[in-house]
Automatic annotation (TrEMBL):
Name by which UniProt lists this protein: Uncharacterized protein
Source taxonomy: Eukaryota, Metazoa, Porifera, Demospongiae, Heteroscleromorpha
Lineage: superkingdom: Eukaryota
SUPFAM superfamilies per record: RNI-like (SSF52047)
InterPro entries for this protein: LRR_dom_sf
Length: 462
């Protein structure tokens, strides 16, 4: 066995984990994905035991102890030093992801060890605060030394609470050969003001959780292949979409619309132009918080842009459920370049003042009588789609008997589709959606096997 996946949720302890992590028992393990929750153990000690596995190449470790036992300070300090040296001297580990309570000495040992390690190419450290009182901040210079002295790290993702940040960050030299960087919310502000991004050259993948001027990103990183960027103003959205009208390197884009004010007409126009002119983007995700309204006009801009786009293969969007929805789905049905689609249907902005119950009363019949038939028709026309996710948040318990036929027609279309491999229906679901599927499942499977004996059964998930 070379791969280990385990989740220990039943009060793991230092002694139990010591017995479990014997190198003699796990000698051949090269990949380890482990979640440890509850229990009483010291993260530093546990991490050290994992790193002593002799052939380990990939370690993803998530630790959330209920209690961290009190240990002798000298013993703990020695273990932290041992952890640092163990990481430094490790010659097999290539990828390490650690998610745990942020203990200053443990974080510092990991960072220092990775700084001098010669084989680790990917490091993810996501730390969360322990219960009060908070630990002291990291020593000055620890992060700077990592970025200056490490010469193997290609992918870095850091999320360390502000309370644990050193008193100053003075990043003026980056020699680490990073090509992928994720800067999560706690880090973004200070690292941005320290001008980290301009000092890194050659990034292909950049994931940000705080806004940043798009023109500065592409000025420093013109060869980006993947970008995730929050947008908090219409101006930043227009700037980004305008740049991408002529960009030929970016392949995947995820934007998070942070404020409703971003959705102005000129933003929609710039998105439309970007989709029309850019024929190299393969993946587009537009994230909208469930409680934020989307203007009715936005869907028209999106639909027009998609009508002229031939490059997108994966699309994930939230759209208002209005009259434009049918046109949108009809355009999708003609875009055989799209193989993966995720659409979340939201109430139209005209219903923004309605209560939750009123929105459910509006959305439930619309979902059954407009969305399901439109999706069914799309599947009948679209012969290359492999993955489909549809969601609707405001669904009530009301039910009309004529909806059963619409649901059945959708399921029948799914099981005779030539390319569909997976479909997921999410949101507040109705019992009859699931019950109808259970009732018809055997008939649907039999028909599929008869008509498409060489195609795997599509997976239907609720």
């Amino acid at each position: 066995c070379k791969r280990l996946e385990v989740c220990l949720m039943d009060q793991p302890t230092n002694d139990l984990l010591h017995k479990f992590l014997q190198p003699s028992l796990l000698y051949n393990i090269q990949e380890c994905y482990c979640v440890l929750t509850n229990g009483q153990f010291v993260p530093c000690f546990v991490l050290l035991q994992f790193l002593n596995l002799p052939q380990l190449k990939i370690l993803h470790l998530e630790m959330s102890p209920n209690t961290i036992p009190t240990v002798d300070n000298t013993h703990y300090t020695n273990k932290c030093t041992e952890l640092e040296e163990c990481i430094e001297m490790n010659s097999t580990l290539q990828e390490m992801k650690i998610v745990c309570i942020g203990i200053t000495s443990t974080i510092a040992s990991i960072v220092r060890g990775v700084t001098r390690n010669k084989t680790i190419t990917s490091l993810t450290m996501h730390m969360h605060l322990a219960p009060p009182p908070p630990p002291p901040p990291l020593p000055d210079g620890v992060i700077e030394q990592l970025l200056k002295d490490n010469n193997t790290l290609q992918a870095l993702s850091l999320d360390i609470p502000d309370e644990l940040l050193p008193s100053s960050l003075n990043i003026v030299e980056v020699n680490t050969p990073l090509t992928a960087l994720e800067m999560r919310e706690c880090w973004s502000g200070k690292l941005m003001t320290s001008s980290l991004l301009p000092y890194i050259k050659g990034l292909h993948c950049l994931i940000l959780h705080d806004p940043y001027p798009p023109h500065l990103l592409f000025l420093s990183h013109p060869s980006l292949h993947t970008l995730a960027l929050p947008l908090d103003t219409a101006e930043s959205a227009i700037e980004l979409f305008t740049i991408l009208q002529t960009n030929t390197t970016l392949k995947a884009l995820s934007v998070w619309i942070m404020e409703e004010r971003v959705y102005i007409s000129s933003m929609g126009t710039s998105l439309q132009e970007m989709l029309t002119q850019n024929q190299t983007l393969k993946y587009l995700e537009i994230i909208n918080d469930w409680y934020r309204d989307i203007p009715s006009s936005f869907l028209s801009f999106l639909t027009t842009g998609l009508r002229h786009n031939t490059s997108l293969q994966q699309l994930s969007v939230s759209i208002p459920l209005n009259e434009e929805m049918r046109t949108f789905i009809n355009v999708i049905s003609q875009r055989n370049n799209l193989t993966e689609l995720e659409v979340n249907f939201k109430p139209d902005q005209s219903y923004s003042n309605c209560s939750w119950e009123e929105k459910k009363q509006i959305m439930t019949p619309l979902f059954h009588e407009q969305v399901l038939p439109a999706v069914t028709n799309m599947l009948q026309s679209h012969t290359t789609i492999r993955l489909l996710r549809i969601g609707c948040q405001y669904n009530g318990e009301s039910f009309q008997s004529n909806w059963i036929e619409l649901v059945q027609h959708l399921y029948e279309t799914i099981f005779i589709h030539p390319s569909l491999e997976y479909i997921e229906i999410t949101g507040y679901l109705y019992h009859h959606l699931i019950d109808t599927f259970k009732d018809k499942k055997k008939t649907l499977i039999d028909k599929h096997r008869k008509e498409q004996p060489h195609k795997p059964l599509p997976i239907v998930n609720f």
